[in-house]
Amino acid sequence: MGRMRSALPFDVWRMLRFGAVGLLNTALGYSLILAGLALGLGDIVSNAAGYAAGLTLGFFLNRQWTFGRAGGFRPGAVARYAITFVVAYGANLSVVIAAMSAGLIENPFVHLAGNCLYSVIFYLGSARFVFVGRADAPAATNAKLPGVAT
């Protein structure tokens, strides 16, 4: 019987780059949260500023370095990135809420499990939904106007 292969690419180096970008955007986001708190901006504003900066840095580094899309900016990529974040973060919160419902309150392993699920979903969403296509793929041309990229 032949060996079955997954349709998903297994690229360890790309996964490591994604992880490195995650560490960088976490460091930036957390630093801004701490700075906001020190400036008296409060939890909500500080957290929002930290996440916004971290997600922005993550988008551009992942686009250029992790997934090799430096050759062009695809329409809708920012919206797809935002959707992917919301889905991944929602899954993270679902793990935490389910654990709380089961009586596991303030358990760091619950948050670790949620964060792992978040990371896997964000990676797969980025690889398969956000940064799709090849960076070196030629631009499509308009049939009515040859040579004009669409």
UniProtKB/TrEMBL annotation:
It holds the Pfam family GtrA_DPMS_TM. It comes from Mesorhizobium huakuii. Keywords: Membrane, Transmembrane, Transmembrane helix. One of its GO terms (cellular component) is membrane. This is GtrA family protein. It is found in: Membrane. GO terms for biological process: polysaccharide biosynthetic process. It is a multi-pass membrane protein. InterPro entries: GtrA_DPMS_TM. The lineage of its organism: Bacteria, Pseudomonadati, Pseudomonadota, Alphaproteobacteria, Hyphomicrobiales. The chain crosses the membrane at residues 20-38, 44-61, 81-103, 109-131. Residues 17-131 form the GtrA/DPMS transmembrane domain.
